Amino acid sequence: MSPESTGQNEHYIRVYRRRFRAWRGNRPFWAGLFTMAGGIPIAYFPYANMHLGNVTLAMSTTAGAGSLIIGVLLITLGLTMWFHSIVRVFAGVASILLALISIPVANIGGFVIGFLLSLVGGALSISWAPGETKSDEEPFGEQGSRRASASKGLPDEQRSEDEIHAAAVPQQQGSGYDLAADADGGRHRAG
Prior knowledge:
Layout: H1 10-25, H2 29-44, E1 49-52, E2 55-58, H3 64-83, H4 88-105, H5 107-111, H6 113-127, H7 142-151, H8 161-168, H9 179-183
Antiparallel strand pairs: 1-2
């Protein structure tokens, strides 16, 4: 029995998994995966041979080179979706067009399997949008106003409406806002 336990490497697995999830979340991962998975049968089936006992079925057609090019381009577009997500719309449109072209060229789009996978991957790529980061959120929200009221030591029921409103909405500094106008109930000093 080894003195080193198997649980020590669990930390590294969690770190790699967390890194992969973060990487996957910042790009159209599933769109690229479907597009690449659609390119494989389109490129493979024209060159495949099936063996049924002593009988060999050759599925190759005269358009083998065209289907190979379409399959390789779909795999390249899937990788482009992963590593250059800024061109995701172009890659999505191109993969949909290549999937449509594969119907007459590449054995009915890789026996419809590659066609459907590439079509779904292209549609996912076009519809994907990058998520908002947490730093883009407002620093004072509903929770910020609760912290401000808790810092004064009074619950919301015992505070006036003006104090609650002032705690919820931060005032802008240096904008020339006249605080005396608020003290007068919104009336101007001259009137």
